[in-house]
Amino acid sequence: MSSDASDVNEELGKRLRSARKAQGLSQTQVAKSLGVSFQQVGKYENGQNAMSVPVFLTICKALRLRPSFVLDQVIGARHDG
User: Fold this and answer.
1) How far apart are CA 18 and CA 4, in angstroms?
2) Average pLDDT over residues 27-53
3) 11 vs 7, 25, 35, 54, 77, CA distance in Å?
4) Residue-level pLDDT at 77
C-alpha cells in the first residue's frame, strides 16, 4: 500500500474513532453493527487495515455521520498538513 493510501486510512480511522468516542460508543458496539470483532474495528481506526466502501458506509450509519462530511474532513486534513 502506498504512503498516501496509508495516510488516508490513518486519517479516516482517526476521524471515525473520534466520532465513536464522542458518542460514547465502544469498539464492540460498532463491531456488532459491522459483524466483525472489536479488534477489527481497532485496526480500521488505527489505519492498519483499509476499509471497503460498504464498511465505511456502515460505520458512518452506525455513528450517524454523513459520509461526505467525514471525507471532507479527511481531505481538508490532508491539504492542511
Assistant:
1) 21
2) 95
3) 6, 19, 23, 18, 8
4) 73
Which amino acid appears at position 53 of this protein?
A: V
Residues 6+ apart with CB under 8 A from 5: 50
Residue 80: inside a domain, yes or no? no
Is residue 32 one of the residues assigned to a domain?
Answer: yes
Model confidence at 4, pLDDT cuts 50, 70, 90, reads confident
The CA dihedral of 18, 16, 13, 59, to the nearest 10 degrees, is 150
Task: Give me the pLDDT at residue 75, please.
Answer: 85
The rounded mean pLDDT for the chain is 91
Question: DSSP for 43-74?
Answer: HHHHTSSPPPHHHHHHHHHHTT--HHHHHHHH
Query: What pTM was estimated for this model as a whole?
Result: 0.85
Q: What is the total count of domains within the chain?
A: 1
